[in-house]
């Protein structure tokens, strides 16, 4: 690629980093310097070369000039060649110095200089000209893909308005704002840093983060993230996170790292190009020299021409640029819809998923519990028991704990709990007044041999059992609601031929009720973390691929076991972004089949490009070796196919899923 191009990836590397601050890492990295160059400036060398080439061809064929011959003609075509040829020759030398001899620059340099050597000057110039034009278009396509994702994600304003103690406003750079400062937002302004809303109520457009255009209304103390747009009232936000640690920063870091996690197809093409190119050079030499042993009227220039055509056709640019660009486009399309994919390898896995195994709470249900009833054997100490339960649940992050806290109220700080312990898949236990208190499911009661006189299966709601002093004293029922798009999610998965399974630690009656409502045929409740692992192992034992959708942290063993882990990340959960392979930012289950559809479409486009490139090149290579293809066909087989493959790769970002 020519040195005055936009910052891009090189043709024989599949690195397409999104972060403009990171140095491109590739086999023979070539710098295209200033990313702010105008399109005209990028094409200027090609325009100059094209004008001189056309004039030369006219002098040769249509308006013969007596002076246009000998050294004058050679000089004219040499000048036409230099604007597009010199940068490529320079890059070829740089690559050779780095130990990478068989680069695409080397192939093009040999082919075009060879054309000059056998006095095919116009064709030599034309090959380099079209190659350069193709490379500029590739550069533009890659830059556009990067820009689309960056503009999609990096929505933070450079400046924000802060409010001081005297209610005076000052405009400052976003990166200088400290934690605890107050930001004031006018309608239409973007949030610059993560924080909590201190105004009573405000509506925000969260499309940049979630892909969801529906406004999100926030209440006082709700989390507000950088990139959201304030819609209708002046709002105030207290900053809780530094600029560099904001949710958007983590998302950007994740997306830029995604290009380092390669799909098997990408890794194969990269290895293939390293072996393929030197083989092609050897074959070209054999095409040129070997016929001398078998052909009676051997003419060196004719066979050299065929060898040069063979070299031009063989350049692997169409594959090694369009394939990573296709995966990068898939990651971009997912990001646009609020789905963060941590690597192109996960897009490949999504395309082959046969089973989606999901948690219930927070995945298919809202995860927002509300206390329905409190049933205690003795009403006299009801308030005291609820205060103890509330204090104990304060040690848990489970949605049940939040529901109890909202029902009971503030924590009673006079209550002193000892030996607090969370028992995974069961609940909590602690000691108070030298008596043991247990709060959890009925499996917790069974574990500690606490007898109870009710049938848990008869209660439809989620039930929290309570034991105090080795005696069952009652229970609290809590209800959750099914997400509005949960049913359509299961239907879409079924349409894609994917089986759905629900695994939950919640009681079986609740799990079966939700599964029946959503038409999920396989559902299991009362499961411990190890039980979930065993259920997933049973599916994997059938040689079927599994995507697990859930918390991403609590279900870490199942996520690790499954082929791909999908987290309902929520806008506030940093841990899930770090744990899962794929993060659904707005917690909508409908994004699960959407992510799978994007994976399938990405893989389809990648294979279309592979078949196109190999098919056309194979045909023209045979024709070239047999002397039936000229440099013009060679240009199409290289540059033309590369451009077609790139156009095919970038169209995924325009698709609707």
TrEMBL record:
Domain P-type ATPase A as annotated: residue spans: 156-256
Superkingdom of the source species: Bacteria
Subcellular location: Cell membrane; Membrane
Signal peptide positions on this chain: none
EC numbers: 7.2.2.12
PROSITE patterns in alphabetical order: ATPASE_E1_E2
Keywords: ATP-binding, Cell membrane, Membrane, Metal-binding, Nucleotide-binding, Translocase, Transmembrane, Transmembrane helix
Membrane is among the record's keywords: yes
Entry-linked Pfam families: E1-E2_ATPase, Hydrolase
Enzyme class (EC, first level): translocase
Keyword Flavoprotein among UniProt keywords: no
InterPro entries assigned to the protein according to its UniProt record, in alphabetical order: ATPase_P-typ_cyto_dom_N (IPR023299), ATPase_P-typ_P_site (IPR018303), ATPase_P-typ_TM_dom_sf (IPR023298), ATPase_P-typ_transduc_dom_A_sf (IPR008250), ATPase_P-type_domA (IPR059000), Cation_Transport_ATPase_IB (IPR051014), HAD-like_sf (IPR036412), HAD_sf (IPR023214)
Family label: Belongs to the cation transport ATPase (P-type) (TC 3.A.3) family. Type IB subfamily.
Record-given protein name: P-type Zn(2+) transporter
Annotated gene: cadA
């Amino acid at each position: 690629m020519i040195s005055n191009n936009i910052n891009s990836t090189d043709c024989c590397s599949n690195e397409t980093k999104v972060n403009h601050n990171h140095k491109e890492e590739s086999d023979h990295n070539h710098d295209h310097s200033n990313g702010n160059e105008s399109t005209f400036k990028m094409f200027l060398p090609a325009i100059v070369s094209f004008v001189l080439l056309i004039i030369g061809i006219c002098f040769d064929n249509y308006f013969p000039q007596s002076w246009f011959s000998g050294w004058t003609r050679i000089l004219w075509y040499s000048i036409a060649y230099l604007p597009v040829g010199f940068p490529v020759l320079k890059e070829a030398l740089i690559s050779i110095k780095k130990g990478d001899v068989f680069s695409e620059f080397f192939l093009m340099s040999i082919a075009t200089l060879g054309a000059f050597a056998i006095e095919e000057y116009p064709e030599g110039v034309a090959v380099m000209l079209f190659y350069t034009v193709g490379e500029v278009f590739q550069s533009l396509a890659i830059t556009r893909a990067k820009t689309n994702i960056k503009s999609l994600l990096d929505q933070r304003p450079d400046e924000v308005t802060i409010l001081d103690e005297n209610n005076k406003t000052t405009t400052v750079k976003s990166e200088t704002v400290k934690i605890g400062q107050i930001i004031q937002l006018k309608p239409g302004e973007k949030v610059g840093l993560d924080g909590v809303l201190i105004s009573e109520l405000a509506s925000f457009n969260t499309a940049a983060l979630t892909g969801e255009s529906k406004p999100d209304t926030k209440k006082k103390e709700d989390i507000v993230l950088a990139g959201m747009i304030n819609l209708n009232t002046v709002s105030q936000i207290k900053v809780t996170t530094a600029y560099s640690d904001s949710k958007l920063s983590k998302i950007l870091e994740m997306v830029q790292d995604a290009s380092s996690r390669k799909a098997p197809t990408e890794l194969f093409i990269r290895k293939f190009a390293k072996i393929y190119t030197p083989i092609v050079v050897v074959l070209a030499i054999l095409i040129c020299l070997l016929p001398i042993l078998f052909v009676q009227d051997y003419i060196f220039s004719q066979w050299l021409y065929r060898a040069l055509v063979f070299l031009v056709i063989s350049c692997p640019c169409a594959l090694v640029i369009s394939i990573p660009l296709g995966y990068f486009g898939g990651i971009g399309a997912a990001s646009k819809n609020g789905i963060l994919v941590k690597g192109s390898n996960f897009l490949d896995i999504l395309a082959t998923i046969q089973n989606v195994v999901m948690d219930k709470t927070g995945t298919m249900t809202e995860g927002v519990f509300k206390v329905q009833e409190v049933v205690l054997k003795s009403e006299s100490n009801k308030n005291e028991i609820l205060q103890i339960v509330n204090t104990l649940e304060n040690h848990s992050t489970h949605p049940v704990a939040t529901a109890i806290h909202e029902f009971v109220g503030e924590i009673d700080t006079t209550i002193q709990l000892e030996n607090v312990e969370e028992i995974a898949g069961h609940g909590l236990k602690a000691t108070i007044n030298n008596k043991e208190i247990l709060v959890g499911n009925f499996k917790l009661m069974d574990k500690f041999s606490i007898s109870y006189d009710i049938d848990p299966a008869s209660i439809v709601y989620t039930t929290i059992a309570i034991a105090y002093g080795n005696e069952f004293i009652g229970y609290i029922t809590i209800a959750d609601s099914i997400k509005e798009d949960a049913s359509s999610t299961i239907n879409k998965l079924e349409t894609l031929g994917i089986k759905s399974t629900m695994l939950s630690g919640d009681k079986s009656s609740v799990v079966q009720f939700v599964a029946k409502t959503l038409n999920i045929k396989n559902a299991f409740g009362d499961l411990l973390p190890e039980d979930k692992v065993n259920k997933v192992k049973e599916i994997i034992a059938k040689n079927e691929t599994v995507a697990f959708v859930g918390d991403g942290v609590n279900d870490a063993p199942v996520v690790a076991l499954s082929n791909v882990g999908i987290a309902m990340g929520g806008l506030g959960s940093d841990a899930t972004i770090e744990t899962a392979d794929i993060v659904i930012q707005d917690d909508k289950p409908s994004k699960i089949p959407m992510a799978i559809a994007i994976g399938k479409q990405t893989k389809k486009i990648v294979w279309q490009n592979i078949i196109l490139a190999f098919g056309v090149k194979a045909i023209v290579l045979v024709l070239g070796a047999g002397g039936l293809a000229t440099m013009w066909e060679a240009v199409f087989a290289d540059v033309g196919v590369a451009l077609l493959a790139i156009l095919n790769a970038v169209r995924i970002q325009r698709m609707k899923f």
